[in-house]
Amino acid sequence: MFDINKARADTPGADNRIHFNNAGAGLMPTCVVDALKTHIDLEAAIGGYEAADQTTEQQQRAYVAAAEMVNCKANQIAIVENATVAWCHAFYGIAETFKPGDRILTAMAEYGSNYISYLQIAKRKGIVIDAVPNDESGQLSLDALENMIDDRVKLITITHVPTNGGLVNPAVGIGKIARAAGIPYLLDACQSVGQMPVDVEEIGCDMLTVTGRKYLRGPRGTGFLYMGPAMLDRFEPLTLDNHSATWTATDAYEIKPDALRFENWENYIAGKIGLAAALDYALAWGVDNTHARLMGLATSFRAQLSARKGVVVRDIGAETCGIVTFTVDGIEPAQIKQEMASRAINVTHSTRFSSRLDMEDRDLDGVVRASVHYYNTEGEIDQFMIALDEIISKN
Ligand SMILES: Cc1ncc(COP(=O)(O)O)c(C=O)c1O
Questions:
Q1: Which residues of 143-161 are buried (b: 16+ CB within 10 A; e: fewer)?
Q2: Residues 6 or more apart in contact with residue 29 via CB below 8 angstroms
Q3: d(Cα 326, Cα 308) in Å, to the nearest integer?
Q4: Are 163 and 357 in contact (CB under 8 A)?
Q5: How far apart are alpha carbons 190 and 86 in whole angstroms?
Q6: Hey, whose CA ends up nearest to atom 3 of ligand 1?
Q7: What is the pLDDT of residue 1?
Q8: 113: closest CA among 352, 354, 323, 351?
Q9: What DSSP string runs through 355-392?
Q10: How far is the CA of 115 from the centre of ligand 1 (A)?
């Protein structure tokens, strides 16, 4: 039995609003808020450097817990400001090795920011970006991916769960193809880690990027990068400093031997400690358990939405997740978001900018995105449906 009373008692924000924007930022549990506040109070009381010296164990816990979360070693984790920074270290780092005519393979549901980076590197380096088509279910087609592999492919770079829908791309199948071909594989797991079990060994990815604030329920301004062993010799970090490297002689330096080479010296210590608390909290629930619960909620949510006239559920793929997206005939997604907000219900809306290839392919300008977590309830979904009926009837 899932202890929903404990989940909600640990989540002060759950009393204030119906929070269906967990893919934006999950509500922090009390233990995370306390960890953040305690460290900030300590910094104010004794000084920032001194507070850092006193909390090395809690900081180190963030690496160990992140490693446990994605099944790797603690020294394969770099803790950075957000998923974008993590991803840019990986992508722009490996992009330094690209030559004109090299190809990168990506997914139709690729995250907008990532795609902008591909376009920039295509312009700078003359590489070719190829998006792997979807199969009939709407997920990346593994057959198509296999057929697109050739000697020129230098990176497979995929968004696991897109920003604009409930699709889960077949990360493990992609990993098998990448490994067989010996092609580096970068997985943007920003929306999946914390929501569902994610195991870098099982997936076979070389690099994986995560944010703290979404399904992990950690503080904003935190994220991490998993850097697999094969990548450390393949490319250097784009930038170095006194933390990622050591100045060993007037004309020499040594780069850190592990993933810490992708960090820099100054960082958000309270955030790191808060992230450790969030990871420990998620691990204590067990991601298998919380995933099963949120999947039950999402399935029931989609069923109720589908039963409403004029509402179309937009989630595609053979496997879906807790991100529920839909459109309503004649009402803009932005308006639904606004009207829900006026009823203390948090949702968001995704536009073409968020994932242009996918949105154009499906001829969508926008969708409402209601993303559930395990601390949400069926009762909240019922209230949401009442609110939606009201909005539809008055428009
Ligand atoms: C798929 C995906 N990747 C990356 C990011 C960026 O994450 P962050 O804001 O932590 O940099 C997002 C944020 O929405 C996202 O949806």
A1: eebeebbeeebbbbbbbbb
A2: 10, 11, 217, 278, 281
A3: 11
A4: no
A5: 10
A6: 190
A7: 87
A8: 354
A9: SHHHHHHTT-SEEEEEE--TT--HHHHHHHHHHHHHHH
A10: 12
167 vs 34, 319, 326, CA distance in Å?
Answer: 34, 6, 13
CA of 317 to the centre of ligand 1 (A): 20
Query: Sheet containing 77-80: which strands, arranged edge to edge?
Result: 77-80, 223-227, 207-211, 185-188, 153-159, 103-107, 128-132
pLDDT digits (tens, 9 = 90+) for 131-178: 999 999 999 999 999 999 999 999 999 999 999 999 999 999 999 999
Sheet containing 311-313: order of strands? 311-313, 323-328, 366-371, 348-351
In 218-373, DSSP assigns E strands to: 223-227, 245-249, 252-255, 311-313, 323-328, 345-346, 348-351, 366-371
How far is 308 from 248, CA to CA, in rounded Å? 67
CA–CA distance, 381 with 376 (Å, rounded to integer):
8
Separation of 392 CA from ligand 1 center, angstroms? 31
For residue 350, the cross-strand partners are 367
Taking Cα atoms as reference points, which of 40, 154, 42 lies closest to residue 96? 154
The mean pLDDT value for 120-139 works out to: 98
What are the tokens at 20? 């269906």
User: How much of the chain, in percent, has pLDDT values that exceed 70?
Assistant: 100
Q: Is the backbone of residue 385 left (phi > 0), alpha (psi -120 to 50) or beta? A: alpha
Which residue, judged by its Cα, is nearest atom 8 of ligand 1? 83
- With 0-12 / 13-18 / 19 or more C-beta atoms within 10 angstroms meaning exposed / middle / buried, residue 62 is buried
pLDDT average, residue stretch 109-128: 98
**pLDDT, tens digit, for every residue of 373-388?**
999 999 999 999 999 9
Contact 121, 95 (CB under 8 A): yes
Tokens encoding 202: 């099982």
Tokens 């057959």 belong to residue:
143
Q: Which of 169, 191, 195, 354 has most ligand 1 atoms within 8 Å of its beta carbon, as the pocket-test mutant?
A: 191
Q: Give the Cα separation of 62 and 171 in Å (integer).
A: 25
Q: What is the CB < 6 Å shell around ligand 1?
A: 82-84, 111, 159, 162-163, 188, 190-191, 211, 223
Report pLDDT digits (tens) over 158-171: 999 999 999 999 99
